TrEMBL record, chain A:
Residues 1-86 form the AP complex mu/sigma subunit domain. One of its GO terms (biological process) is intracellular protein transport. InterPro entries: AP1_sigma (IPR044733), AP_complex_ssu (IPR016635), AP_mu_sigma_su (IPR022775), Clathrin_sm-chain_CS (IPR000804), Longin-like_dom_sf (IPR011012). Signal peptide: none annotated. It comes from Propithecus coquereli (Coquerel's sifaka). This is AP complex subunit sigma. Belongs to the adaptor complexes small subunit family. It is a peripheral membrane protein.
From TrEMBL, chain B:
This is AP-2 complex subunit alpha. The gene is AP2A1. It comes from the Eukaryota. It comes from Propithecus coquereli. Residues 615-675 are annotated as: Disordered. Component of the adaptor protein complex 2 (AP-2). Adaptor protein complexes function in protein transport via transport vesicles in different membrane traffic pathways. Adaptor protein complexes are vesicle coat components and appear to be involved in cargo selection and vesicle formation. AP-2 is involved in clathrin-dependent endocytosis in which cargo proteins are incorporated into vesicles surrounded by clathrin (clathrin-coated vesicles, CCVs) which are destined for fusion with the early endosome. Residues 745-858 form the Clathrin adaptor alpha/beta/gamma-adaptin appendage Ig-like subdomain domain. Residues 666-675 have a biased composition (Pro residues). Residues 646-657 have a biased composition (Low complexity). Belongs to the adaptor complexes large subunit family. Adaptor protein complex 2 (AP-2) is a heterotetramer composed of two large adaptins (alpha-type subunit AP2A1 or AP2A2 and beta-type subunit AP2B1), a medium adaptin (mu-type subunit AP2M1) and a small adaptin (sigma-type subunit AP2S1). GO terms for biological process: clathrin-dependent endocytosis; intracellular protein transport; negative regulation of hyaluronan biosynthetic process; synaptic vesicle endocytosis. Pfam families: Adaptin_N, Alpha_adaptin_C, Alpha_adaptinC2. Its main location: membrane.
Amino acid sequence: MQFMLLFSRQGKLRLQKWYVPLSNKEKKKITRELVQTVLARKPKMCSFLEWRDLKIVYKRYASLYFCCAIEDQDNELITLEIIHRYKAYFILDEFLLGGEVQETSKKNVLKAIEQADLLQEKTQNMYHSKSFIGCKKAY
Amino acid sequence: MPAVSKGDGMRGLAVFISDIRNCKSKEAEIKRINKELANIRSKFKGDKALDGYSKKKYVCKLLFIFLLGHDIDFGHMEAVNLLSSNKYTEKQIGYLFISVLVNSNSELIRLINNAIKNDLASRNPTFMCLALHCIANVGSREMGEAFAADIPRILVAGDSMDSVKQSAALCLLRLYKASPDLVPMGEWTARVVHLLNDQHMGVVTAAVSLITCLCKKNPDDFKTCISLAVSRLSRIVSSASTDLQDYTYYFVPAPWLSVKLLRLLQCYPPPEDAAVKGRLVECLETVLNKAQEPPKSKKVQHSNAKNAILFETISLIIHYDSEPNLLVRACNQLGQFLQHRETNLRYLALESMCTLASSEFSHEAVKTHIDTVINALKTERDVSVRQRAADLLYAMCDRSNAKQIVSEMLRYLETADYAIREEIVLKVAILAEKYAVDYSWYVDTILNLIRIAGDYVSEEVWYRVLQIVTNRDDVQGYAAKTVFEALQAPACHENMVKVGGYILGEFGNLIAGDPRSSPPVQFSLLHSKFHLCSVATRALLLSTYIKFINLFPETKATIQGVLRAGSQLRNADVELQQRAVEYLTLSSVASTDVLATVLEEMPPFPERESSILAKLKRKKGPGAGSALDDGRRDPSSNDINGGVEPTPSTVSTPSPSADLLGLRAAPPPAAPPAPASAGNLLVDVFDGPAAQPSLGPTPEEAFLSELEPPAPESPMALLADPAPAADPGPEDIGPPIPEADELLNKFVCKNNGVLFENQLLQIGVKSEFRQNLGRMYLFYGNKTSVQFQNFSPTVVHPGDLQTQLAVQTKRVAAQVDGGAQVQQVLNIECLRDFLTPPLLSVRFRYGGAPQSLTLKLPVTINKFFQPTEMAAQDFFQRWKQLSLPQQEAQKIFKANHPMDAEVTKAKLLGFGSALLDNVDPNPENFVGAGIIQTKALQVGCLLRLEPNAQAQMYRLTLRTSKEPVSRHLCELLAQQF
């Protein structure tokens, strides 16, 4: 996976995660272009599109669009389910690392977090609120 | 959604965030932020040492401010301090801050790296994971340099926890993707493969991702993964939906891992071991069988996960392309999906079937779905799905259904989305040409194209129809009649005028007998469009007019009148003016014989690759045309398209098989020796509107053509590789072909040209270099009419070159159609000075026989030259500075080419150095200067070339700051004269 963007129906970027090194200018350009393209699509249309030499897989949950850019040989349907899982987890690094799925078991992800919990009693709330902030205001 | 923090003590942060949220205006927000920044600054600067908790809190605030879009220029040190805390949240915030905020050239890097090192060595799995995540998230080259060597150790260490192994595998993958040269291969690779056997499914998932990436470069090192992957896959596929517990996703066992394993297997040919292969085939069959079972859940997640595996399985079946039974089953399965109510599945089925169409085993099965696909093209509401349907129609087209498909595509074109019109036009044009049963159909189709979508008909398309009409005398009369009729339309597209103008100018005489299309009628019809057209078209029409004077002497007076008109003779456009003046004079001074010679009918065009096909490939990337096969599966290919030769009197050049259009049998480049500029003008129509008719080749072109390699004497034998059919790994590539050095030498002073050519294959090169970077385009042209299979060009770095030169290649399509060309892009980075060029190994199968070929890639150290201008005194000063004997290399040699000062100059400039005038007291001598740019260092170079015309000798002297470079440059350059 090359990158993942979360944005609202109004086109506001909520979260971005890049797994390839790109300049800020490029990122902005890509984001603008993609948000426009995806928002212009009607609800019944398919979740995949070709864009530059990448494949875009997107899904809308309530008013939030989850949008992943994958490479030509990657599998579209499983990416859709990554989005679904991702939505369930919302914890980035335990699930996705460097653009690859790290752990697909829900329980193990939680276990990893619990382990962190044990280290200190006032715990993952912080971790959560941090990703939460990240979602609220994308930089 | 995570709960908002409750009672974890960072109240200050919560208050600050809610303050910001409550700000009514941007100004208020900025004010609040500035206040907070001042507060934090004073805390950090204050003499009271802050405890970890406060540091964490303030760093969090800074992070939040940064995420709001404000610049943060302090606090890095405090964040780095947090890294060494042994409290989880403090450490974690520290890592978060530096992952987001610290850029690679910060001087803090050393401290950060130290903290990461400590955590990696801490044996505390949570800390180790935090550190690994940080490395992966930053993923910079510096991180790679610091840790790439440690991570493999952590990955394969027996005592690493599962979670650490997972993170280590993916972290390594990230570093490898960013800078492959930094990750050392070694004995750990074998142990990574064994992670496929790990008990922990998460570890296996991470390991598969890593191996899939690594094995692309070193397939043999990871070969043992095949059997492990197969047995893993087999266990998953045959497990019940509850066996894998956590790893079962909506009743599908381990879908991610299954997909990744199937992906990994696609990096290799089918397993050689019969038992492994049997087991794998069984797996694939099981997946296909399961697709027929009723779903275990109505949830879309269930069907997505299940179908993800199914599509990946089909990809693998197509990749192997060796099991007819499975291929046909795959096709039937996709056929079911074509009618599925899920748009996503219809989309994927169309896409996947496109690749199935190119397999000879399933081509026929794909064709049975033609009606469904045509229906999709007409009725799908989503443009991306329609696009896939158009692709599939293109791929499934052959002689039996070409007429139907072409007419459906033409019909679709009338309502097609603007975004894909040009592509559809190209496809129709190619299919019409490729499967033309009679050429009147072809001409009709192209004229229809222009009529329906004239704006989207690119130059390539209408050039092509002209080439074909010119080369085939059986269609010329029909073409003339048809364009004449098309031009009758009150509003016709300019492209129609171009085609009409050209064809009538050449073949108008064939319809002149009919009073309805007599010469004056033809002329006035064309001329009625003249004033509406662009300059390029008007220029073309002027050429048509002069041709008319030759064809129909009765129109001479009228046309001369037109040419003489002030609007032509004094036209503001220099091209039009020149044509009008020259044609007018030509028509008045030349005798009929001369006119007839100058304005003779165009000779047949030498066959080149269909420019349309090339264009479509440029649009779609390599492999776009791969589904279109040659006439091989079409026994009737020898009829009209194969046999007829337009000029039977000429000796046909032998061609390995019947060429589809019979054009290759046309006389070889019989371009007229351009008796007058007028003849040139018409040829130039094909060089685009920017043609410069009266200029000869530019000096540069002349120079290039002089350096062009001579056509090699059919080194067919070189290609016939007696090796067994098994695909050999990359390291046992053969030695470079004997003339590799000679071919390389041709490219020392130039960047573009034909690198290699034999009867099967032509390899062209275009490259550009800037500083220490370069980009090279390799064009592989299949000169035969038979598809190349398993086509795989790879770049190999012999010896130490790996550390000196980084070459990134993109993979190209594994099939190259007959007559087609594929392009490969190479990104090159010169890391330090190097002496040997990388090798290019090209392998493919031609008619079942494996072919292989190794060449030297034309990347020599001088490509990274940057010319340096300097005054005479600077030059001499530097020359003296480089006076150590080992810094100088000198060669005295005999001239191999005529000693022409201009050519020498051009070669030296092509070599890359600047040429300095007025430096050498002897004006016959050449003096140059430049800097070789590499990532690690720069090497200044001075050179002097002294020709001695009497003795036909040269003396070449090079001085650089590095001894091997002087010698190497001297050798390279000495070969050029």
